[in-house]
């Protein structure tokens, strides 16, 4: 079974990120019952600003890095649920990504963006970062999920109101799983 880690990248009080991730996870599970999903909320990790003495590339991890390595290392694929801060990804998400190295390698990633216009610039930056970490992104051909005007998009249950969300979650997960399974041969 393919294991997909859904990563929520923002951490601020009152954020929309967790609501978007909970909605996405429920929808993804409904349409892909043979996939194992797990949520990783960066806010719950309460990470310091990265201050490890060794580069993660050296794989001489601190106990805190080992804890994160277990979670990221157990996944075959990632879905990044990301907002957009000043036309890029939130610093909290970049900080989390930087803690590890090899645990990202030869896995697949898909993207769920929310903001004024579906966090498209944030996703583009994430794709560049993931490429450096040998992650294959499945973000082309309309397979990103986006929510526009996030400040008014969600109803009282955290579900996007009609007209605000775009993208096919089931198709995105199917593509993610296909690529993730192929990449297993490289690990
Ligand atoms: C520091 C900051 C910068 C922002 N910059 C952008 C931006 O560049 N593009 C955009 O679409 N929205 C931007 N916004 C609005 C966010 O899309 C919106 O606040 C969203 O809810 C942020 O995600 P969060 O609630 O999970 O933190 C910004 C918000 C913050 C707090």
Q: What is the radius of gyration?
A: 16 Å
Overall domain count? 1
Which class in CATH terms? Alpha Beta
Helix content: 25-40%
Give the oligomeric state of the chains in this entry, treating copies of one chain as homo and distinct chains as hetero.
Answer: single chain
CATH topology call? Rossmann fold
In CATH, the homologous superfamily goes by the name Flavodoxin domain
Q: Give, in order, the helices and strands.
A: EHEHHEHEHEEHEH
Query: Span between N and C termini?
Result: 16 Å
Q: For the residues shown, what is the average pLDDT?
A: 96
Taken from the alpha-carbon principal axes, the silhouette is globular
Task: Give the DSSP E fraction (strand runs of 2 or more residues).
Answer: 15-25%
Q: Would you count the extended β strands for me?
A: 7
* Largest sheet geometry: 7 strands, mixed
Low-confidence stretches: none
Ligand inventory: flavin mononucleotide
CATH architecture: 3-Layer(aba) Sandwich
Q: Helical element count?
A: 7
Q: Tell me the structural class.
A: alpha/beta
């Amino acid at each position: 079974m393919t294991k997909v880690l859904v990563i929520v990248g923002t951490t601020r009080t009152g954020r929309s990120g967790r609501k978007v991730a909970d909605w996405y996870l429920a929808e993804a599970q409904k349409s892909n019952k043979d996939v194992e999903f797990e949520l990783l909320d960066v806010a719950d990790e309460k990470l310091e600003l990265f201050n490890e003495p060794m580069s993660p590339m050296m794989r001489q991890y601190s106990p805190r890095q080992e804890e994160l390595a277990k979670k990221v290392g157990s996944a075959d694929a990632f879905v990044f649920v990301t907002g957009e801060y000043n036309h890029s990804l939130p610093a909290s998400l970049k900080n989390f990504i930087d803690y590890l190295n090899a645990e990202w390698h030869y896995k697949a990633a898909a993207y769920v963006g929310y903001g004024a216009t579906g966090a498209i610039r944030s996703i583009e930056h994430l794709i560049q970062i993931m490429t450096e970490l040998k992650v294959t992104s499945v973000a082309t051909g309309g397979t990103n999920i986006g929510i526009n005007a996030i400040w008014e998009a969600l109803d009282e249950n955290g579900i996007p109101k009609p007209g605000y969300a775009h993208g096919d979650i089931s198709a995105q997960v199917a593509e993610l799983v296909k690529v993730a399974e192929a990449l297993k041969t490289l690990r």
